UniProtKB/TrEMBL annotation:
<comment type="pathway">
    <text>Protein modification; protein ubiquitination.</text>
</comment>
<keyword id="KW-0808">Transferase</keyword>
<keyword id="KW-0833">Ubl conjugation pathway</keyword>
<dbReference type="Pfam" id="PF00179">
    <property type="entry name" value="UQ_con"/>
</dbReference>
<keyword id="KW-0547">Nucleotide-binding</keyword>
<dbReference type="GO" id="GO:0061631">
    <property type="term" value="F:ubiquitin conjugating enzyme activity"/>
</dbReference>
<dbReference type="InterPro" id="IPR016135">
    <property type="entry name" value="UBQ-conjugating_enzyme/RWD"/>
</dbReference>
<feature type="domain" description="UBC core">
    <location>
        <begin position="11"/>
        <end position="158"/>
    </location>
</feature>
<protein>
    <recommendedName>
        <fullName>UBC core domain-containing protein</fullName>
    </recommendedName>
</protein>
<dbReference type="InterPro" id="IPR000608">
    <property type="entry name" value="UBC"/>
</dbReference>
<keyword id="KW-0067">ATP-binding</keyword>
<dbReference type="GO" id="GO:0005524">
    <property type="term" value="F:ATP binding"/>
</dbReference>
């Protein structure tokens, strides 16, 4: 088993924080992100505000962002921690979006650009994805699917 040496880790930490803006303050209005623990450069968390005029409006959605050791050569693993009823988000929070797949990954993507893409996906789902059971409802009874998505947003992504 290979263990990462301290100098390699420090280089990776410096590079990730420089690239992704560890002390960033000028986030887009509807998302933010940062490391979960300052000295752990590969474990981040993101927050997305539900897009206006969508069933997710008013919701606050938390995501885990796990950066691989060879980021940005390989894509991060991003999952919703907040439950979301959406055709492109699995029950376990997995996000079905091509830009996160290894064969579609482009190293110029940043965490910010990925979160913005995920936010756009919330507003404009692709119900043709066969991996998620709610896709069928989005295709056959979109209004009912939107009602369920709104209910889940109120239940899981809004404070009382």
């Amino acid at each position: 088993m290979h263990t990462e040496s301290m100098p390699d880790r420090k280089v990776a930490e410096h590079w990730i924080y420089k690239r992704e803006g560890f002390r960033k303050v000028d986030f887009p209005t509807h998302c933010s992100y940062g490391p979960v623990i300052e000295d752990e450069p590969f474990k981040w968390q993101g927050v997305i505000m539900g897009p206006s005029y969508s069933p997710y409006e008013g919701g606050v959605f938390f995501l885990s962002i796990d950066l691989p050791q060879d980021y940005p050569t390989k894509p991060p693993t991003i999952k919703f921690l907040t439950k979301v009823y959406h055709p492109n988000i699995g029950e376990d929070g997995t996000i079905y979006i091509d830009i996160l797949e290894e064969d579609e990954w482009n190293p110029v993507q940043t965490i910010e650009s990925l979160l913005l893409s995920i936010c756009s996906l919330l507003a404009d789902p692709n119900p043709m994805d066969p991996l998620n059971p709610c896709c069928l409802l989005f295709r056959t009874d979109k209004q009912k699917a939107i009602e369920i998505a709104r209910d889940w947003t109120r239940k899981y992504a809004m404070s009382d």
